[in-house]
Fold this protein.
Amino acid sequence: MASLLLCEDKRIYQSHQVYKEKKNPKQNQSNRFYQTDLIKDNQLTLCHHWLKMKEDIQLMLTAVLACLPSVLYIYCYTNYHQLKQLCSTVFPLEPDITLLPTMDKELFGLLPHKWISSIAHPLLDITAAVPYILHFILPIISSFYIYATAGEKRITVILKLIWCGGWVNMFAFTIQFMYPTAPPWFVESHNSKNANVLLIAANEAALSRVDDLLGITTFHRIYSTATITFGAMPSLHVAWPVVILFIYPIKSFGCTLFYITWISWAALYSLHHYAVDIIAAALIVCVVHSIFIRSWCPFNLRSHYNYQQ
């Protein structure tokens, strides 16, 4: 009896549903459309989240790739002396002290660093010291500036800056490792005649006057603990701002060009570099940019991040 009542109730309910559909077919159809749209929206949301996660992973892997040259450089730099001993039979240990001044004389008819450093003044000493201090934080400052001003291209530009800068460091390290060259302060000191030149630590040269003037030991500590003493050519102090000029020239051209001029003057004034070291730095950046940015660059991605060349 109960089962008969249940069957009768079910029949009545189904009849009522059919009656409702006949009475208001448009509402029923809209409900079906709504359910279909809801399913599609959920599918699109899941697809969007998946693509977003995929591109986040791709961005992370790309950032790791961009840092690889810098990681390689840091490893080689920190193990410089061990690598030097391993390759002592192939590459010279003692620095060349004649090549760079000879090249300067051939190109300019004089030694530019001598002419510039002959006009010494405490104010000029401070002026020369500033870009040497800024050198250590220049990549960070540049990255923040690019992030704030490059708009939708900012991620790509920063990755290219790290990538190109890392390769420039590696090219410069390779030259300094294979053919060490002495800076002006060493050539013009009695140390150039010292039999144990390999035991001589790097020197702050004219920047020692800043330490004396301000009563600090900043530059002495920086240079006395430097890993590479004989790495005059090329000048990485000049190379990094040139990298910035090549990677992000649109909004930084005037400021970066001024900074390049400033650090180039400071490198000569402080007796840390010859003029050819500055030229070599610019040439290395040109070569690296042509190979690793213009010819082949792994950071020309297209996604919802809107990467652009």
Summary: Residues 50 and 77 are 41 Å apart (CA to CA). Residues 1-10, 16-23, 301-309 have pLDDT under 50 and may be disordered. The radius of gyration is 33 Å. Residues 25-78 form the longest helix (54 residues).
